[in-house]
Design goal:
The chain is an alpha/beta fold. It contains eleven helices and 13 strands. The strands form three sheets. A six-stranded mixed sheet has the order 5-6-7-3-8-9, sandwiched between helices. The protein has a four-stranded antiparallel sheet with strand order 11-12-10-13, covered by helices on one side. A three-stranded antiparallel sheet has the order 2-1-4. Strand 11 and strand 12 form a beta hairpin. The relative contact order is 0.12.
């Protein structure tokens, strides 16, 4: 049985519809009008134990609302959610011990307490043993540099420091399921690398992770499954590498030759590739990686002139998702 399951999950927010300015506010006091905003629209989602799932979409697509529904923070307008077979609203206490949630835009720290005391409060709430608690703190210190921020009040933390502390707070009780909503906001490059490595460790230990992020470097190398949501609906759910194979097939070979080469000669040697020239020594060769290998492309250029240097631009999931966001590419549902 899936550890996270949603069926027909829908959330509609009712918002006041009033005119601008004071006149609009006064009129709304006597004649109230509302309009509905569908944030999540009949989403079906099933996540197996130990899966690492990337849940991505443009701003306002419904990502954070979905996470709040799956964690029991919001009540669905329609549909149902099950976490390890439990109902997040009816079984709140049990579900709370099974899940950890990190919202990049929100904190679960107490603003007027030092980070160490906030974590100690969470330790007591979740009933974490002292030995286990110390072991986890040592691990967080190793990965996140947590020790240096433990004495700092929550309200005095920088954004990057708060993200590190909130990540520890979300994981202090060893949850089975972790929702990470923009978990690397505000982190510097070195800490980001350590955090991503930490995420991979969670996955390898069997923790189920659902990750939403606009930084696609968080996703590649960690998540094996990609779910794309747009306007509240899932428009793609499938294998991450499969998306790249279907929609990111193009490679670009950048070469520098020792002697000038005629563009026409290159095009004759590589009829299936698109070739552009910066000058007579520098060329870009675009080709389908399933129609031609990188070795074939390099050999064809090397047959016309000695190579001084070359590099390869690999296909990126970021390119695919950017094209989906812009409306250039339409993905069919894959599950």
């Amino acid at each position: 049985m899936p550890i996270v399951e949603a069926r027909g999950l829908t959330k509609v927010f009712r918002r006041p519809d009033k005119g601008p300015g004071l006149a609009g506010s006064v009129k709304h006091l006597f004649t109230r009008r509302y309009r509905d905003k569908v944030a999540v629209d009949h989403v079906d989602l099933s996540i197996e134990a130990g899966e690492a799932v990337a849940y991505v979409g443009p701003n306002g697509a419904g990502k954070s609302t979905t996470v709040k529904l799956l964690s029991g923070i919001l009540v669905p307008t329609e549909g149902e959610v099950r976490i390890d077979g439990l109902h997040p609203q009816r079984d709140r206490m049990t579900v709370a011990h099974k899940i950890g949630v990190l919202f990049g835009q929100r904190t679960q720290l107490w603003w007027d307490l030092p980070v160490a005391e906030s974590l100690a409060v969470l330790r007591d709430i979740y009933g974490v043993g002292e030995k286990t608690y110390r072991k986890r703190l040592d691990r967080f210190d190793e990965v996140l540099g947590l020790g240096e921020i433990l004495p700092i009040l929550g309200r005095k933390l920088s954004l990057g420091q708060r993200m590190r502390a909130d990540l520890a707070a979300a994981l202090i009780h060893g949850p089975q399921v972790v929702y990470l909503d923009e978990p690397t906001i505000g982190l510097d490059l070195a800490v980001k690398d350590r955090v991503r490595e930490f995420f991979r460790g969670l996955r390898d230990e069997g923790t189920t992770v659902m990750l939403t992020s606009h930084d696609l470097a968080d996703i590649e190398g960690f998540c094996r499954r990609l779910v794309i949501i747009d306007e509240g609906r899932i428009i793609f759910d499938g294998d991450l590498e499969g998306v790249k194979d279907r929609f990111a097939r193009e490679r670009i070979l950048h070469v520098e030759t020792e002697h000038p080469v005629a563009l026409e000669d290159l095009r004759a040697s590589l009829p299936d590739a698109a070739i552009t020239a910066e000058d007579q020594l520098h060329f870009a060769v675009r080709f389908d990686r399933f129609a031609m290998t990188a070795g074939q492309a390099v050999s064809a250029v090397a047959g016309l002139a000695s190579l001084v240097d070359f590099r390869m631009d690999e296909p990126s999931i970021e390119d695919v998702i950017r094209r989906v966001y812009s409306g250039e590419l339409v993905l069919g549902e894959n599950r």
